[in-house]
């Protein structure tokens, strides 16, 4: 059993897609272990995405991530990190496979509706960024 962090990003929350995205996640057999809605401020968004601080789109990305409420979700399952990355689809929705969350819902490469951890170390950092032990079931 592995844990991963899913974020439903501001563009998706704004368009009333929380339920549609969680429906796809649960249908894929991933288990919700913790969930909260919140709005990051700019500094918190910079902290979450600090690995991208040198990228040209960092300012825009963190501005967007702080632009409205998000939903943070801890998902569990066998091989959950890889399975959820596959369900999300490629970063750029024009490159995302049919039936993936980003293919169905994303607006652009930046406003791509969801986040997913990419490795066990990043999953551990990202889960602890949003949740403490008491907030997780199991
Ligand atoms: P990922 O979310 O598929 O793991 P990353 O490369 O880790 O993609 O990038 C983090 C986030 O930064 C993306 O989900 C997207 O919102 C944004 N992003 C990535 N590349 C670009 C870009 O070229 N222009 C604008 N935003 C980008
Ligand atoms: Mg990433």
UniProtKB/TrEMBL annotation:
Homotetramer. One of its GO terms (biological process) is UTP biosynthetic process. Its main location: cytoplasm. It holds the Pfam family NDK. The active site is at 115 (pros-phosphohistidine intermediate). Its cofactor is Mg(2+). Residues 1-138 form the Nucleoside diphosphate kinase-like domain. It catalyses: a 2'-deoxyribonucleoside 5'-diphosphate + ATP = a 2'-deoxyribonucleoside 5'-triphosphate + ADP; a ribonucleoside 5'-diphosphate + ATP = a ribonucleoside 5'-triphosphate + ADP. PROSITE patterns: NDPK (PS00469), NDPK_LIKE (PS51374). This is Nucleoside diphosphate kinase. Its EC number is 2.7.4.6. GO terms for cellular component: cytoplasm. Keywords: ATP-binding, Cytoplasm, Kinase, Magnesium, Metal-binding, Nucleotide metabolism, Nucleotide-binding, Phosphoprotein, Transferase. PANTHER family: NUCLEOSIDE DIPHOSPHATE KINASE (PTHR46161), NUCLEOSIDE DIPHOSPHATE KINASE DDB_G0292928-RELATED (PTHR46161:SF3).
